[in-house]
Structures are given as structure tokens and as C-alpha cells.
Amino acid sequence: MTRRTTAVAGITVLGPVTARDGAGAEIDLRGPRHTAVLARLIVARGRVVSVAQLVDDLWEDAPLPRDPVGSVRTFVSALRADLEPGRPPGTPPRLIVTEGPGYAFHAAPELLDSARFESAVAAPAGEGDPAERAVTTLRAALALWRGQAYADFPDASWARAERARLGQLRLSAVERLGEALLAAGRPAEAVPDLDAHVTDHPWREEGWRLLALALYRGDRAGDALAALRRARRELVEHLGTDPGPRLAALEVDILRRAPHLDPPPEGPAQGVHDALTRAAAAWGPGIGPRATLTSTTALLAGLAVHGGGPAEATVRHAATVAAAEELDDPHLTARVITGFDVPSVWTRPDDPTASAQVLAAAERTLRRLGDDAPVPTRVRLLTTIARESRGSTDPRGSEAAAQAEGLARSHGDPALVATALNGRFLHCFDRAGLAAHRDGIGAEILALGVRHESTTSIALGHLIRLQARCALDDLAGAEQHAHALIELDRQHERPLIRVFVTWFHALRADLRDDPHAETRYRDAARLLGDAGMPGLADGLLALTLVARRLRRGEPADRLGSLGPLGPYEPWIVPHVMLAAGERARARAAVRALPDPPPGHLIEVLWCLAGRAGLAVGDREVVARAALALGPAAGELAGAGTGMLSAGPVEDHLDALRPEPTP
């Protein structure tokens, strides 16, 4: 047999994993384990995969051979010979390179069909009619697909996330093609593919919107309304949720034949940002209900962490959990619930309704699985209960957090301990004065993250410590954590980090009496408004400005200039009334004040309550505030957020405590 000397010219992963030489002939990769090694290295996208990890992944559900490490090295050696047959002896390989404890796959983008696909769908339209060029580009990109990505390895856990990522980009590309055809004035061509698309993926609201619009522009208004009715039925029956506002608005616009639905004279192809935005609304790659639900969960978790809108991801996760429960498989439901393992650093949920739904589902699933459930599953379900009950006075959340931590520590998995510690952190706000305790939790999470190279735990640890060091009046220490967070964002694209760091820098400027501090707060609030975290954003600017003026001895401004008061209205309004000279109304408002809920802002809300009580002569409220704030003497009120401050707690205590009797 003549030995092949032509190097690999193309590798396909958008379907079965294959390699071809320059003549187009398929390269024999010898066996499934060899192919698995190649696929596993490609999935890593240039990162090093250790030999130990390759052993775990290749034999994850099979008995190990006598010498698994030797087997891996044999597979790699054979692959190098097959992919680079003409490489001179003694020269280093170019494709599968040895780095540190393992191997990495280095290849030019044009070698991989997946890279060519991503490059094509992200490319600008170029010269000529942008819509027509987008149609041509997207059709060529979609033609690269020959089935599910990494189709040879449907059950391999190491391929799951990458398969889901590529699958979501494919679905987004189908929708972008439909949009490009609409922009090009060819709605009839868009209908067949979009109809097939929503039939296979009925949870993609953007697909339904484009199909209805294509039908309408093809003079099929009745069919367009029928498609929207189909969308409603699918969403209600399978997800238990009504169509979103865009679909509802489209139905109304079609009924009244709104002029803006008519085709534009020309329209540019959508950029990659729009594709990723639509991917945030994705509902799985359509590979069966169980795979769809678990893949969707992984996607939503990634979007929440990387800035795709945590609130939207949370709402959609709640719907995904509800869909999983309908299949009556508690093990599947547990995977869907716990797959959304997104750390929380704020004690007020973004969507209380969605959190309550996930909390209830976690409790039901935990009961159904019982004590025989694997420890990691129990820990993650208990942590979900702790996480979704944050900010509540119900003791169940803190009990679940303590149970999760105990189980995780006895189990010995560091990643599990870090997960459980996040639940514990969220329940360390039930009383004032716990900043040092939270700092210790953050330090342990950070150490676990560094030791086991978990970017998520490292970021969470730095955020917790930034907040805690601010509360402890250690701005220099907080600044060190802010620098580390900025570097994490630069390396790993965690845009939500920028929100917290920007607010911290505004707080630091304020505490240094920067005359532009209030402007910096307002700029930070605009950044927060785009971050998709309403639980954090709602009312925060107003509270920040009132706390700042309280610290400086200035009256609260009129309501109009403060912006929405959000959940902090009961504590802000008395100060606004006092600033307006409405003492009687302020006294009534103070009398009706509830105790502040557990959370990051418990100290600053007690300061506002106590100071308002002092101003109107309500001794009972003053006494309650002084008692609650006592353990926080030595801290900065509100600075445990890393975002705002009402000044030293001790200053407020000095004002609230009664003068000693001579």
C-alpha cells in the first residue's frame, strides 16, 4: 500500500467527525477512540486538555484499559502521523501539540468547518446589496451542516456544551437567513424554511415572528394570524407561558395592517450581536425533549454569566424547569434545575415569580428523589433552594444553605463546596454587622477557585470580598479585588463584572468627596439599566442619592429628580417629605415603616429609618434602629454593596443613642 503524504486539508465536525486530504479523500482515523481524541481536542478550542482529562473523557462510561495514559499517547501519535504524514522526523507537530500536562489542537480557521461556519455568519455583508449578500453567505454557511455537530458522540458529556453552542448558532443563522430574505423582498422564499424551523423548534419565538411576518408580506395575512395562534398554543401547552411582547404586538399590528410591517426599501443583514441576542431566547437544539431541556439549561446558564441578561435567562429557566416537570422524571428535572448553576452576588432576585417557581420545583424534586439521591444532586438542589429564597425572612433558605454546606464538605468535592458557600453567603444578611463573616466566605470561595482553576468561583470570591472590604472601610483592599475583576473580564468576557466595578469606582470617588460623584453614580446607573438585572437596578440610584445626602447632612431631593424608588420607597419617602417641610406626613410614614428585609441594604435602610424617626420624634423607631445597627459599629452603612454608602454606622449610632442621664 502506498503511504499517503498529503497533509490534512479539512476537518468536519458539523455532522460526523471526518478528515480529508488535499485531494478530497477521506483520511482513515483508524478507530472511534482516535476520532474521539481528535474531537475532544477540537472541542477545547485551542486550550490544553490534560492527559488525565482525556482518560476521563474517553472512558467516562467504560472500564479503563490496563494502561490508559499509554493508550492516549498512542492515539495521539497515530493521529499526528495520519494528519501530518509528510512531517520530517524530529520536527515538532503543527496540529496536535504537546503543552504542559497534555495536548492542544492548533489549526488555521479554514481547516475546520465549524470555524468557517462561525466566520461566515459573523461576517459583515460586504459590497453590493447587503441583504442579497447576506442571503448568499448564510445559505453557504448552513450548507456546511451534515447533521448534528459531533454526531459520532451523541452521549459524550465533553461534547455537550460545544454541540449546544454550535446548534444555537445554527438556529440563529436560520433565522438570520429568514430575516435577510425578508429584507431582500423575497418573503415567499423564507416561508418553507421558517415553517420547518418552528415545527422542529417550537419554543423559538423569533422563528414564529419571522414566519408570521413572511406570510403577511406574501399577502397571506390569514395564514400569518394562524401561525401566531400556533405559536401561542405551542408555548402555552409545552412551556406554560404566553408569547412574549414582540409576538403579541405583531398580532395586533397584523390585525390593523400597520404600515411599518410593509417591507423596507432595503435592509442590512443583521450582525453577530443580533444573532447572539436571538440565541439568548433559544429553546434548545431540537434533539428530543430531554436533550433539548438540558442543552437549553446550559445555554441559559452561559448567557446569564456572560451578560446575556440574567433576568431573562432566569425567567426562561423557570419555564424550562416547568417543561421538565411535565415529563415526570425527577432525575431529569434535577439536572435541569441544577444545570443553571449561576452564582448570585445580590440578595434580591431579578424576577421573584420565576425564583418562586424554581424554588418550589426544587423542593418537590428533592422530596421525590429522597435521601438516596447522589450527594452532588442534593447539594445543588439545596443550594438552589437557598439561592432562590435569598432576601426572604423564611428560615428554610438558611437551613437549606447549612445542609448543602455540610453535605458538600463531607463529600470532599471542592467545586461542590464553592457552590454551597454561595448559598451560605446569600443568607449572611439577616442582621447587620456580618461583613467580616462574608469576607471569610469570599476568601474561601476565591481560594477554591484559584486552586481548581474555576473562573466563576474566582470572580464570585473577588466580588464578595470587594463588597465586604468596602463595608469594613478598607477601600484599598477593595481596590485590589476590583483590579483582579477587571483582568478577569478582560480575559474571560464577564461584562456583568463591569457593572459592579463601575459602581465601586463611583462609590470610591464619592467617599473621597469627588465633586462629580453624583454624576458618576448616574452614569453607573445607565450602565446598570442595560445589564438585565432588575433586582439590582430597581430603585438603586434613588437610594444611593438619598444615602449620599444623608451622609453629607443634605436634605433629600424631590421625588422627580431621584428617579424610581423601587422597593426602597417606604424608607426614602419620609426623607423626601421632610425635605419638602411635610412633617406630619413624614411622621405618619415613619410610623408605618416595616423592618428592612434581609439583604445587602439592611444597614443603610435602618440608618434611613432611624434618622427619619429622630427627625419626627418617633422614639420607638429610633430605638429599633439603634438596636439593629449596634452589631455593625465600625462598618460603613450600605458599603457592603460595594456601590453606595450612608457613612459610618458609628456616626448614626451616636445620633440615635439617647444622651446619658447626668
Q: How do you describe this structure in short?
A:
The protein is mostly helical.
First-to-last CA distance: 109 Å
> What is the CATH domain class of the domain at 120-304?
Mainly Alpha
Q: How many E strands?
A: 7
Question: Percent of residues in helical segments?
Answer: 55-70%
Number of helices: 31
User: Beta-strand level of the residues, as a percent range?
Assistant: under 5%
Topology:
Layout lengths: L7 E5 L5 E4 L10 H12 L5 E2 H8 L9 H16 L12 E4 L2 E4 L7 H10 L7 H13 L14 H27 L3 H14 L4 H13 L3 H19 L5 H11 L16 H8 L9 H17 L4 H17 L3 H10 L12 H18 L5 H14 L7 H16 L2 H13 L8 H17 L3 H17 L3 H18 L2 H17 L5 H13 L4 H4 L2 H12 L7 H4 L6 H11 L3 H9 L10 H15 L2 H11 L6 E2 L9 E2 H8 L6
Antiparallel strand pairs: 1-2, 3-5, 4-5, 6-7
Helix pairs in contact: 1-3, 2-3, 4-5, 5-6, 6-7, 6-8, 6-11, 6-12, 7-8, 8-9, 8-10, 9-10, 12-13, 12-14, 13-14, 13-15, 14-15, 14-16, 15-16, 16-17, 16-18, 17-18, 18-19, 19-20, 20-21, 21-22, 22-23, 23-25, 27-28, 27-29, 28-29, 29-30, 29-31, 30-31
